[in-house]
Amino acid sequence: MDYDENMNVAGGRELARWLTGRPAGYEPSWNVKPTQPLPIAFTDHKSGDPRFEYAFWSLVPVWSKELKTRFPTFNARSETASEKASFKASVKSRRCIIPVTGFYEWTGPKSSRTPHAIFGPDPILPMAGLYSWWHEPDAGDDEGWHLTATILTRASAGILQTLHDRMPVFMSDELLADWLDPETEGDKLLLDAVSEASVPISEHLREYAVKPLRGDGSELIEPA
């Protein structure tokens, strides 16, 4: 599920600074998948201004020779991201928010999995993420740049414990400014703080089963 400009923004004026307008090429979606465009909000390193853009959903580190990795990078474990080669540079100063209206989780056997739609206490549910600018090796300095991103995860809490052992790290209002400030050096202490602050948010989530996800449209979030 994706960001909708017409919804009120949770987190007050601070988050609203980053969610002004819509990313270029915006199209609402209720079924975003890894490697597809994912809306992210972050602080521009050069100007210090808020930016709200689409990113390739799977973080590609700057040293990769191609726009893909040998292993999945659409999620990053908050417990180890500061130590992993693919993520540690982004933890340090390239952190972002992924603002969504909700997300899905699945239960049941692989042959017959049931999707569940999950929503937060406010219209916008901000998730903590990391981003990276990947540059095509043979492109010029001013072209061939790709914005890529990943969603941080942690051990599940609240109602999500009955659905999966992992959940996204939800962004708390209190830590938002530091998280999006590239001058705040990211480390495991910051990751742990953001992760723990997301637990109270998880206690206010709501979920319900929906029909198998086919195609894309608002009907996907109708109760089964």
From TrEMBL:
> What protein am I looking at?
Abasic site processing protein
Q: Which UniProt keywords apply?
A: Covalent protein-DNA linkage, DNA damage, DNA-binding, Hydrolase, Lyase, Protease
Q: Which InterPro entries did the record assign?
A: SRAP (IPR003738), SRAP-like (IPR036590)
- Taxonomic superkingdom: Bacteria
Which Pfam family would be a valid example here?
SRAP
Q: Could you say which EC number(s) this protein's record lists? A: 3.4.-.-
Could you say which protein family the record assigns here?
Belongs to the SOS response-associated peptidase family.
Organism, per UniProt? Answer: Leucobacter allii
Does Flavoprotein appear among the keywords?
Answer: no
